[in-house]
Amino acid sequence: MALTRSYRDQVNNEREYEMITILAPETTSEDIKVIQRRVLDLMDRKEGRLLALENWGRRRLAYTVRKHRKGIYLYWRFLGHFELVAEIERLMRMIEKVIRYMSILVDANVDPNARPESVTEEQLNQAAAIQSFDVPEHEDRDQRPAETDEDDAGEAEAAGEESEDEDKE
Amino acid sequence: MMNDKKPRRFGRRKVCLFCADNTVKIDYKNPQMLRSFVTERGKMIPSRITGTCAQHQRSLSLAIRRSRMVALMPFAVNE
After folding, report:
1. Parallel, antiparallel, or unpaired for β A98-110 and A68-80?
2. Which of A42, A105, A126, A156 has its Cα between 20 and 30 A from that of B54?
3. CB-based contact (8 Å) between B69 and chain A?
4. Do B74 and A102 touch (CB under 8 A)?
5. What's this model's pTM, rounded to 2 decimal places?
């Protein structure tokens, strides 16, 4: 691809990004592993490097996203170029389990050698394990009991309609 | 007349929280901290009320907007 790179990107410089992806609450550890592998493949191809991957567990969303009230948060930090980010975002749009993603440039001018650490196998496995934080913030407490039954019904519906949403996009 | 205006009262000068304490970082990943800068309805509180300085208010508003994007904070809270 004939993409113009900025001068900054030509020298031994990389950009550091972080990305948050929200996965549908019914996502399994296996699904997360698949997503991990696909992202890591992309990073290999585009010469990026994953610095950190965290799983923040299944959390309550502040508002419904694609009819989900809860979501599994994954937090990624990586080095790479903008092409890599574009590719990863494209991938995220294709994976149906991903209900929301946001990538942010942390630092545009990073020497890759200054960031020696990269993600270990163990961290990857940890990130695949899903924990539930169903009892998070104090203010939700009064609403919670009524919600548990509703939740399941809402999710089942949402699962059926999700594929339609994809087509429209 | 010159003295028609009500006398203005000056209270204690507010200090920007982030200038006063540089251990507090503005981060969109920390909704707990950002929550004190929005109303119960989820709207941002102007800096003239919180006393945040312009620079920090700018990064604060960016953080709140980012936080809303990833559903860590609400856009609006309806009763």
Report:
1. unpaired
2. A105
3. yes
4. no
5. 0.72
Give a yes or no: residue A92 inside a domain: yes
ipTM, interface predicted TM-score of the complex: 0.75
Mark yes or no for CB contact A75/B72 under 8 Å.
no
* Residue type, position A26, single letter: E
For A132, residues 6+ apart whose C-beta sits below 8 A from its C-beta are A57, A58
CATH number of residue A108's parent domain? 3.30.70.60
Distance, in Å, from the CA atom of A102 to the CA atom of A20, rounded to the nearest integer, reads 5
Distance from CA of B74 to the nearest CA of A (A): 5
Task: Report the Cα A37 to chain-centroid distance in Å.
Answer: 13
Helices (H), A11-143: 29-45, 82-94, 121-128
> Degrees (nearest 5) of the Cα angle B2, B8, B10?
150
Task: Give the residue on A whose Cα is nearest the Cα of B74.
Answer: A62
Q: Residues A102, A74: contact at Cβ < 8 Å? A: no
Q: Does B35 touch chain A (CB under 8 A)?
A: no
CA B39 to chain centroid: 9
**Inter-chain touch B29–A22, beta carbons under 8 Å:** no
Residue ranges of domains in chain B, CATH in brackets: 14-69 (4.10.640.10)
Q: Closest partner residue to B75 among A22, A63, A104, by Cβ? A: A63
Nearest neighbour of A22 by CB, restricted to B71, B74, B75: B71
Q: For A34-93, what is each residue's pLDDT tens digit?
A: 999 999 999 989 888 888 898 998 999 999 999 999 999 999 999 988 889 999 999 999
Helix (H) / strand (E) element for A14: namely strand A14-23
Determine, yes or no, domain membership for A2.
no
